[in-house]
Amino acid sequence: MAIQSLQDLYLHTLKDIYFAENAILKALPAMIEKSSAQDVKQLLTMHLDETRGQVQHLEAVFKMLGEQASGEECPAIEGIIEEAEDLMGEIQDPDTRDAAIVAAAQAVEHYEITRYGTLVSWSQILGHRDAIQHLTAILDQEKAADKKLTAIAEAKVNQKAA
Amino acid sequence: MAIQSLQDLYLHTLKDIYFAENAILKALPAMIEKSSAQDVKQLLTMHLDETRGQVQHLEAVFKMLGEQASGEECPAIEGIIEEAEDLMGEIQDPDTRDAAIVAAAQAVEHYEITRYGTLVSWSQILGHRDAIQHLTAILDQEKAADKKLTAIAEAKVNQKAA
After folding, report:
1. Cβ–Cβ gap B3/A118 under 8 Å
2. Dihedral, CA of residue A45, residue A104, residue A115 and residue B84, to nearest 10
3. What is the pLDDT of residues B80-104, one digit of tens each?
């Protein structure tokens, strides 16, 4: 798709993050499986549920724009997930692996935070008022997930690994 | 390098972000060249200078740890930069391209914010007190750069592109 305007770039970025959310849906089960601390498993499982809801929010935004929901390959999330999978495969010690998994999940969250922050900003300037509500709801969930990951890392995971 | 402990993971992550900073040093000049708004150029140029200083901070941390400064391939930053370069190459309209460049720079910042946040946290738990000062200095610069990019996007770049 040729990008000739901010509206084109907005739609491209929606497709990028739609691809990313679907990639995250595929990657999270292995991260849950490979984590050993019960509260890491629970937090990631809760976020897997949230991610399913986020995909639906995005589909609602595509519909508002009169567009078919579709993804466009996102090398950024592929790279972030590849790093996570490499580390999970390599680390044998369960506590160290948990620390790596939490850090990897935070890298995923930060990618989403930057993209949704941009999309909310572009929705405002482009007058896509109906989209703002959906995108802000997702953005707030990603920020909350990142905070919960920091809390769990600092209260428990890092100490166990050290 | 086999990762068997949090200390190994810490060193791995330092090498990952050292690779990333050097990749950013190589990528920023094209982003500056391709941006058209004078204040986007200035902000990225200032951040290029900051990035050179961050590489030196990291080299000081490696030295403290008695390790040779070296990078380990970081697919995440490669993916983020690949997306930025694809978009910059594709978008002809200068105002739309500026919006894409600012968004791409924010994706870079957020990757750094998540990694340095993790590294500061691990420095504390591992007792690398001397490293904390360097890593916190970088983290603060990345957060400030992200805020400046948001400010420039919202005050000017997005409106021009819309």
Report:
1. no
2. -150
3. 999 999 999 999 999 999 999 999 9
The interface predicted TM-score of the complex, written ipTM, equals 0.96
Asked if B114 lies within 8 A of A106 by C-beta distance, the reply is yes
* Pairwise CA distance, residues B12 & A39, whole Å: 25
Q: Does residue A99 contact residue B6 with C-beta atoms inside 8 Å?
A: yes
Long-range Cβ pairs for the range B90-93 (8 Å, 24+): B90/A2, B90/A3, B91/A3, B91/A4, B91/A9, B92/A4, B93/A4, B93/A5, B93/B161
pLDDT beyond 90 at B1: no
Model confidence pLDDT, tens digit, residues B70-83: 999 999 999 999 99
Average pLDDT score, chain A: 97
Q: How far is A52 from chain B (nearest CA, A)?
A: 23
A6-161 to CATH, choices 1.10.4100.10, 3.40.50.300, 3.90.110.10, 1.20.1260.10: 1.20.1260.10
Structure-block tokens of residue B19: 């690779």
Distances (CA, A) of A68 to A11, A81, B106: 11, 26, 27
| CB contacts, 8 Å: B110 with chain A | 110-111, 113-114
Q: What is the pTM of this model?
A: 0.96
Cβ contacts of A39 within 8 Å, gap of 6 or more = A152, A156
Whole-number pLDDT of residue A1: 64
